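Figure 2 data, in text form.
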Amino acid sequence: MRDYDELIAFLGEWGPFQRLIFFLLSASIIPNGFNGMSAVFLAGTPDHRCRVPAGANLSGEWLNASIPLEEHDGRQVPSRCRRYRLEALVNFSALDLRPGLDVNLSQVEQEKCLDGWEYSRDPFLSTVVTEWDLVCDDDWKTPLTTSLFFVGVLLGSFISGQLSDRFGRKAILFATMGVQTGFSFLQIFSTSWEMFTVLFLIVGMGQISNYVVAFILGTEILGKSVRIIFSTLGVCIFFAIGYMLLPLFAYFIRDWRMLLLALTVPGVCCIPLWWIIPESPRWLISQGRFQEAERIIQRAAKMNGVTVPEALGEMQDLNASQEHAILLDLFRTQNIAVITVMSLLLWMFTSIGYFGLSLNTSNLHGNAYLNCFLSAVIEVPAYVIAWLLLRTLPRRYSISGTLFLGGGVILFIQLVPPDLHLLSVILAMLGKFGVTAAFSMLYVYTAELYPTIVRNMAVGATSMSSRVGSIIAPYFVYLGAYDRYLPYILMGSLTVLIGILTLFLPESYGNPLPETFQEMLRIKGFRKRKLTTEIDHSKKNELNEKNLITQL
């Protein structure tokens, strides 16, 4: 029996049909770049200090001295969360006493910001932090906001993977697009932090879920040679384009509600794609819907100007041994279970590094918009390098090497002197380069390991694991408030560790996409284990025969 790739080989690899699918599916990813990192600006925390009421009857000298100083990164800066007790300052001002001369400020009682905060309007005019005062005692809400977004992505990755395996790639692709765009628009009208966060969680359910299903749809429609370009240069670079446009939009639109409106409008432009992007013929065949699959292949042949061979009717044979799969099938045998567990860890630790470095750009020295733009731009050469590595080198060594590069560079940041800010930024971007290159290769690697019947489920499950990492990542950034090097030490260590574990995974380079679990076992790495098992059984049978002869 021929496999699907052989069946549609007559279409060619890069005809008009493939080019159309390539660019439309890639373009549908641009809004994901907007929403995936929008928390950098929507939930940015500007400099702030306690507000002193205008009618406090303080002299200008006492007004300037009303905020105590505290040490931050080796510098004395005004406290963000404390002020001198206002009642005492009013008395000192009324008695014409001078701060620092007549009054020792270190002995003056302090209090919390009872009258709210004053926020710097640089670099943000307004964010959800300034809207609902998510600072000081409520500063835990800021990383929680981002984490709950990724909780939504986690749920969406898990649900969309199973739904698209059951109801089709196309239907779930556009459903998740609608969820992402519609609920992002509703966020504009949020009246409280709780409302904003709940809607943000739902947006997350559609965000990367849309990315995963678009990736699977393209992987199953496009040929083997184009598949690698699509999953590294196509989908990923268009995600980076959306990511690059985010700081550009945010630079000119510094109010969070208007920024959110601008970022959700492009999603509406994807609606016409419903009448252009087809369903996956692979999935239709796996469901026994042969006539629909044949119509899509005939349409592709017409666009490419080729003749459909009579052998196309053999597609019924491709489904002869198809099974209905469930999530537990990812743990069907010990070998598959080990691969699945290691894949889950690989995705989670890589995700911590990627999102930790991405969300930390506003905390790097220099312009927050420029740093975010550089963080997005560095992804483009990372994707190009990933594509070249996937074309020429085994998957395991490519992923492991880039993880070693990213993790090692991140660990070096702690050795940089505090005054060399530019070098720290360069190392952070180089670390982002390595982790991004590895992250982009994970989709290809995972898709090549699993058969069609559970491929989307497997990518969805591993993507779900990466969302666990993204949920944790904001708290890695949050730790920087206590020790600026601690996030880099943790992220670098985990990245190097998972780079080592990757070397123990099986190799899929040069093998066709498996259609069944039996074919999955014949991939390099599995084949050796299967052969060893067969030899063991053979030896056991031979030993039993010898024992029987001895007894006779």
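Caption note: Residues 351 and 360 are 14 Å apart (CA to CA).
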